[in-house]
Amino acid sequence: MNRTKYLILGAGPAGLSLAHTLLAKGEQDIVILEKENEAGGLCRSKEVDGSALDIGGGHFLDVRRPAVNEFLFRFMPEEEWDRYERDSKIHIDGQMISHPLEANIWQMDIESQLKYLMSVSRAGCVTGTPVPEAFVDWIRWKLGDEIADKYMIPYNMKMFGEDLNELGTYWLNKLPDVSFEDVLRSCLEHKAHAKQPGHASFYYPKKYGYGELWRRMAGALGDKLISGAEVSSLDLDGKKAGTTAGELYEAECIITTIPWTCLKEIKGLPDDLKQDIGKLKHTGVVISYCPDTLDTGAHWIYEPDPDKTYHRILVRHNFCPGSRGYWKETRRERFVDEGTYSYLNEYAYPLNTIDKPSVMKKLIGVCTGKNVYPLGRWGEHEHYNSDAVVERAISLGNDLADKNA
């Protein structure tokens, strides 16, 4: 039996940030278990064709959380990063339009502008019709039929699956209501009138992939990080975790950042909650490399066309100096192997299914009552970006250290 005060499951951004927060608070009795041989989770990078490629998809450090950036710059100083103003595009109707679409319809040809403007004017949130419950109906209500049919519905199907109505609408409330006045004004003035999207400004390493940050954080943990240790069982009452190699770890406090559905055995949960965990859904994504240099200044491009397998491309040569080519992101079920480098992420996006909030509320409540804390994209089954994950890890680490001091 291996015993420790804090046992952290998973060495992605959540686990690494939590461990370093505890260390900064004077806690030394920490063990972190990681399934892979390299830390970083979805934020890992590999060298492909002479430059870094982020094998978990497009990940960037948003500038919106200064405290998070200050924390991370301890491991990779700010002078090792370039700062960019986001340039993302949507390839729609044969045209490259800036994101978000509703704010940049003015970039389309005149006939398309008229068509989209008329559609937005009839959107339910503009006309004041009741809010629908089904996902697809909600998208039409929020954005109008043209944006729904040409962009949002096909794009979400490509990312999350064919049956969009198994998704809830609770996670879409962060989208602002479409203002017909703002859309019309943008067409008349030829400039966007909308709130800036996430990653409007972002950092990316000058000489490395995004994974270099997390590699350094992992290295700074020394022998507190055990790689190649796949956790297969979790005992909430005994506060124990077992690995596929037969190692057993016991702790005063466990923090889990790994997917619940990858655990083969969970003790200490009611039977109905164990069954509910089986309802949690996710998608896998394949990252595949293309060596061609694209004639575009965009950092990434959304591709809603159903006839194209991939849903997004990341134009590497526009944010990774000295590189060439780009990579595609494709949901696992749609992937077609073209013979270039590719990497499958079995766990890429947690799905916001209708019953997920109630399942996770109950699960997190039971766990925290037993001194086991779910954290991050997979522990909380929430589609958090890395900066949001780090912020949550810092907060939890400080709370735990103060509580257990």
Keywords summarizing the entry:
globular, eight-stranded mixed beta sheet, single chain, 24% strand, 2 domains, seven-stranded mixed beta sheet, 12 helices, 20 strands, alpha/beta, FAD/NAD(P)-binding domain, 405 residues
CATH H-level superfamily title of the largest domain = FAD/NAD(P)-binding domain
Q: What is the beta-strand fraction?
A: 15-25%
Q: Which segments are poorly predicted (pLDDT under 50) over 5 or more consecutive residues?
A: none
Average pLDDT for all residues: 94
The CA-CA distance between the termini, in Å, is 24 Å
What is the CATH architecture assignment of the largest domain?
A: 3-Layer(bba) Sandwich
Biggest sheet character: 8 strands, mixed
Q: Enter the CATH topology name of the largest domain.
A: FAD/NAD(P)-binding domain
Helix content estimate: 25-40%
Helix/strand structural class: alpha/beta
As a whole number of angstroms, the C-alpha radius of gyration is 22 Å
Shape: globular
Helix tally equals: 12
Number of strands: 20
- The figure for the number of domains is 2
CATH class of the largest domain: Alpha Beta
